[in-house]
Please model this.
Amino acid sequence: MDPAYYADFWTKPGYLGTADNSSAVRDRFYFESTVDYVTLPEKSFNSKDMGVDDAWQTLAVKYANDPTITLIDKPDTPSYSDGIKIIFLTGALAGVKMPVEILAGNTITIGAAFGMGNIAETLKAVCPGDKIYLDNSDYIALQTYHRHQVPERDYDGWEQFRNKDGEPSVLLSLVRSVWPEKDSHYQCFWDVCRDAYLHECP
Model:
């Protein structure tokens, strides 16, 4: 994946993130705050006597309640709450990102994610006063990544967007230039295809 894509999406013309009236701009959510306190869950069973052979079960520990983080400040209710992450700016977890499952007022319920391990154990390192921010920018940008790239030739589905020399075709350029201005993805695609066809065929 293009390492500069997420930044480009919100800063360069031609992307949905720089179109003032786009759904991406409307739904973007960013909020900085400070941790007030953390509520750690209680285990519903005792894993103290686990050995090497069954230690894997700690990854699927069941809890009586979900781990939450309560912030000092209350954000406005986001118009689009999918894909929000909490990113720690200071403290022992500085730089760590976690998915937000529920945002209710100033209380965040942390969701599970691949590779995160035991969330409750991780959250023990969070302290009151730690600086954080909430952000769904990357999630929104990722939804339209396919509009701005042509992968390697092994991906046959994108061959329709290449010319005979293997370079991105004029049609793909049209899709890139027109699509960010509209929210109706499929309708816009067919509009572009129709216009390109009429232009090339007398």
